[in-house]
């Protein structure tokens, strides 16, 4: 990857590995934009959904309908519209996981066209696979360390932290397999894989920088 030209670095990570913070530190060291929160904010505005709800829905294998969406933009009842209830579903707004993936992809690509950036998650390694100047990084950590980090960051018990990790891991894997057709744990998806155990986020960011300089 040539940092003298527009580039993209994608950071895929396991929850509790510190990968999100690594991406932010890396972006600061490179003095480039960090794409994560802005993407979620764009999706929230587009679909009227919260960031946490978007993450949950992404992991579902089936399509999801307007039941939740109507809480934000209620539809008049079929009877109020003078419509036979049997046909009322024709007037329902449907939002699917495909919509979320398409929206994420379009927003993400638009961000990368604005100049060099670091991207956290968002299936970046797959969505941006055609970018000519890109580095894909995966950051993992042992389960005990991940549990400890989630317990600390979210003020959870050990059992609750482990449950959160399990649910997020499953949701993210479902999402990647559905749209990319690969496992997010397959090292062949990435240029660099790092284990966060025994390293600070700063050290991991420096390891990525060292790798870039060596290429």
Describe the structure in your own words:
The chain is α/β, with parallel strands linked by helices. The protein has a single domain, classed as Rossmann fold, CATH 3.40.50. It is 50% helix and 11% strand. The chain has a 5-stranded parallel β-sheet with strand order 2-3-1-4-5, sandwiched between helices. It starts with 7 loop residues before the first strand and ends with a helix.
Largest sheet: 5 strands, parallel
Classified in CATH, the superfamily is P-loop containing nucleotide triphosphate hydrolases
- Approximately how much beta-strand content do the residues carry? 5-15%
* Assembly state (oligomeric): single chain
Helicity level, as a percent range?
Answer: 40-55%
Short synopsis of the structure:
This protein is an alpha/beta fold. Helix content is 50%, strand content 11%.
Features:
5 strands, 215 residues, Rossmann fold
Topology, element by element:
Layout: E1 8-13, H1 19-30, E2 33-35, H2 37-47, H3 51-58, H4 66-72, H5 97-112, E3 117-120, H6 124-127, E4 134-140, H7 143-154, H8 158-180, E5 192-195, H9 201-214
Helix pairs in contact: 1-9, 2-5, 3-8, 7-8
């Amino acid at each position: 990857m040539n940092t003298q030209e527009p580039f993209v670095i994608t950071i895929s990570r396991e929850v509790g590995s510190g990968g999100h913070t690594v991406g932010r530190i890396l972006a600061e060291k490179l003095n480039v934009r960090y794409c994560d929160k802005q993407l979620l904010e764009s999706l929230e505005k587009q679909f009227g959904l919260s960031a946490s709800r978007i993450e949950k829905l992404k992991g579902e294998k089936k399509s999801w309908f307007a039941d939740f969406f109507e809480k934000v933009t209620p539809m008049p009842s079929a009877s109020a519209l003078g419509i036979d209830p049997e046909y009322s579903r024709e007037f329902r707004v449907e939002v699917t996981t495909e919509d979320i993936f398409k929206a994420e992809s379009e927003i993400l690509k638009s961000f990368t066209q604005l100049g060099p950036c670091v991207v956290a998650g968002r299936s970046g390694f797959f969505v941006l696979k055609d970018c000519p100047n890109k580095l894909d990084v995966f950051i993992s950590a042992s389960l005990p360390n991940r549990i400890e980090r989630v317990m600390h960051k979210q003020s959870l018990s050990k059992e609750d932290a482990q449950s959160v990790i399990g649910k997020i891991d499953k949701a993210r894997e479902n999402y990647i397999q559905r749209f990319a057709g690969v496992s997010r744990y397959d090292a062949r998806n990435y240029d660099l894989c790092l284990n966060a155990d025994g390293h600070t986020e700063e050290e991991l960011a420096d390891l990525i920088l060292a790798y870039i300089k060596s290429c």
